[in-house]
Amino acid sequence: MTQLILSILPIATSILILIDAKKRLSINKSIIISIVTTFFFPIGPILYIIFRKRFAPKTKQTVICPKCGTLSSLNNKQCKKCNNVLTI
Asked: How far is CA 61 from the centre of its chain?
């Protein structure tokens, strides 16, 4: 019974890492990370948890101008196109 649990645990961990990595990276990189972490179990999943913040998707926060509909950065106080004051 113990051997069964010890053989299923790396596979289950690999699936969870694959699901998490797909949210952050492309599918190819996610599969590679999942396989590597399974191969280096239990060190691989621990390293993934430590370094996963580096894989966070870079999102640029924007706001839409209510007057002309142009996308502008949240740092801008006025629309680039119509100079309307942007409110957040």
From this structure: 16
